[in-house]
Write a structure and sequence with these properties.
Layout: H1 4-17, E1 26-29, H2 39-43, E2 50-53, H3 58-75, E3 78-82, H4 85-90, E4 95-98, H5 106-112, E5 117-122, H6 125-134, E6 138-141, H7 158-167, E7 172-175, E8 193-196
Parallel strand pairs: 1-2, 1-8, 2-3, 3-4, 4-5, 5-6, 6-7, 7-8
Length: 206
């Protein structure tokens, strides 16, 4: 969890990094294990940020998407649905996020929904190249730092991530273990912004 001051610091740094003003600089990733209730975090996001809804259970994902769609509309946020284009269309979401293994679908869904923002996951330089060829609008490159979401993967490290982002042929977001305490290490990187979980969760004890 993060204090209001820490979340504000993270948001300011993300907006400063934003190399493509057409894209939201800050993404909140929902996570059923690490963020079972993303509503408070969504309500605390600054205008212009985005939410990516990830949830395994279809009914819960649908209910969560509907609730977050209302919040996004009220607060000037974008809403993307992960790996469920039917739900994205049904709930009037602003886009779709695809896992790395499904990134080839990006061009198909972009053709059907030209206004959608379509992002894809990437974990290597080769994946970033494939993402650019897929027709996606941006890639989420992970893990930037050590993270509970990817215990099986070593972090990319700042130098490697910055080099990969600079070489990429599409906008790149840094994802993985990013918070107010380490985002300054990404200063100067050619990034569209950052995506985070815990770094954007309000501290309810404060």
């Amino acid at each position: 969890m993060a204090s209001a001051l820490a979340r504000a610091k993270l948001a300011r740094a993300a907006f400063a990094l934003n190399a493509d003003l057409r894209l939201p600089p800050l993404l909140l990733m929902t996570d059923e294990k690490r963020l079972p209730d993303p509503i408070p975090a969504a309500r605390a996001l600054p205008k212009g940020a985005a939410i990516i809804v990830r949830y395994t259970d279809a009914q819960t994902r649908k209910s969560l998407a509907q609730a977050l769609r209302r919040i996004a509309h009220e607060r000037g946020l974008l809403l993307l649905i992960a790996a469920d284009p039917a739900l994205a269309s049904a709930c009037g979401a602003d886009g779709l996020h695809l896992p790395e293994r499904r990134m080839r679908e990006a061009r198909h869904w972009k053709a059907l929904h030209p206004s959608w923002l379509i992002t894809v996951a990437a974990h290597s330089e080769a994946a970033l190249g494939a993402a650019a060829r897929s027709g996606a609008d941006a890639a989420l490159l992970a893990p930037a730092f050590a993270t509970l979401s990817h215990l099986e993967r070593a972090s990319l490290g700042v130098a490697r991530l910055m080099l990969m982002a600079a070489r990429a042929k599409l906008p790149v977001y840094a994802l993985g273990g990013i918070n107010a305490g380490n985002i300054a290490r990404l200063a100067g990187a050619h990034l569209a912004g950052v995506a985070a979980i815990e770094g954007l969760v309000p501290d309810q004890s404060a």
